[in-house]
Amino acid sequence: MDVFRQTLLLPSLIRAVERDIGQLGMDMFEIDIKVETLRSVFSILTPIVGEIKLKADEEGWKIKAVDPAHVALVDLTLSREAFDRYDVEPMELGLNVERLLEHLKGGRADEIVMMKLDTDNRLVVSMSNLTLKLPLVDASGFSDPKVPNLQLPVGLKLNSGELQKALKVSASISDYITFDCSEDRIIMTSSEDLSSMTLELAKGEQYETVAFEKPAKSSFSLDYFSQLMKGIGANRDIVLNIGNSYPMKIEFDFSEDQGHARYLLAPRIEST
Questions:
Q1: How far is residue 200's CA from residue 203's CA, in Å, rounded to a whole number?
Q2: Start-end ranges of CATH 3.10.150.10 in the chain?
Q3: Residue 80 · residue 89 · CB < 8 Å
Q4: For burial by CB atoms within 10 Å, which of 48, 91, 127, 172 has the most?
Q5: Are 131 and 124 within 8 A, CB to CB?
Q6: Which of 160, 129, 180 is nearest to 261 (CA)?
């Protein structure tokens, strides 16, 4: 091979070697997952934040995020058993979940989404005959919130649909909702000026008691609470924990118990 030809080929060979080295150095992230499962994950997160830091390891996904005002927090895990394929090395990825959720809206529930990283460190999302290449979000400045271990005096198990009844009426009355929990009854109220809403739930009929140490009462922003309920959905079994002017804790499973989520919502403090 003459020198002139070698000179022409050398840059191409260098680029090819650099590309191969880059591919070898890339962290492995290739997954297959049902649209319904992925949509559930993103729907739970978006009431809190639009962008998240995803921690992926051999056990599955772990996501913690707090809203900009530090009023609401979400702590979500999804086990590797929820995936049809899971080839992942431990890593952290910044994702725009609002954007991803928008792209998933047209997919069938049982359709498979394939996600991987390309050589340009973009997220490649393939679904049916659609392929998207999206830049990752810089997650270096994202907070890693600590989830407090709250020991709240009242624990209730109920269907989220029971709470939706109060939310629909309260929205036109007030900007907050109050939970007053006694041993055998939950009373939810909203009031402003001459208007008020009261919804009573009876123990054994609309809910079960998981724990009860003493009565508890707290008020919460109706806007935030309504957003969290959208993330939970209208017909899901939840465990609700309440204290006296303490954050509310809501926990629930999803995706056939292969995912678990926890919301914390700060109480509304009366101004003095």
A1: 10
A2: 3-135
A3: no
A4: 48
A5: yes
A6: 160
What amino acid occupies position 80?
R
CATH 3.70.10.10 domain range(s) in the chain: 154-265
pLDDT confidence of 4, banded at 50, 70, 90? very low
Rg, Å, the chain Cα set: 24
Distance CA 191, CA 199 (A): 12
Query: Domain 3-135 is in which class?
Result: alpha beta
CATH of the domain spanning 154-265:
3.70.10.10
Centre a 10 Å sphere on the Cβ of residue 148 and count the other Cβ atoms it contains: 11
* pTM for the structure as a whole: 0.87
CA distances for 219 relative to 72, 126, 180, 247, angstroms: 14, 44, 9, 9
pLDDT per residue over 180-212, tens digit each? 999 999 999 999 888 999 999 999 999 999 999
